[in-house]
Design a protein that fits this description.
- The protein is an all-alpha fold and 66 residues long.
- It has one domain.
- It is 88% helix and 0% strand.
- The protein has helices at residues 2-24, 31-65.
- Helix 1 (2-24) runs antiparallel to helix 2 (31-65).
- The model has no long low-confidence stretch (mean pLDDT 86).
């Protein structure tokens, strides 16, 4: 399960990178592409952060119950 957590963390960092890239590359990207990258990055961060929270809560309650 440790590898899955690292994959989710990498996905969150990739989503954050998409958000940062849109700020840095705003001069040569169109507004449509920037909006698309922001949406994809935000969705990736939210989805994988929720997945990490789920795994953490599952591990916490498994530890408390056993």
């Amino acid at each position: 399960m440790n590898q899955l957590t690292l994959v989710f963390l990498a996905a969150i960092l990739a989503g954050l990178a998409l958000l940062v890239v849109t700020n840095l590359a705003a001069t040569f990207l169109s507004a449509t592409v920037i909006s698309l990258l922001i949406a994809i990055g935000a969705i990736a961060v939210i989805v994988f952060a929720l997945a990490l929270l789920y795994l953490a809560l599952k591990a916490l309650f498994k530890g408390l119950l056993s």
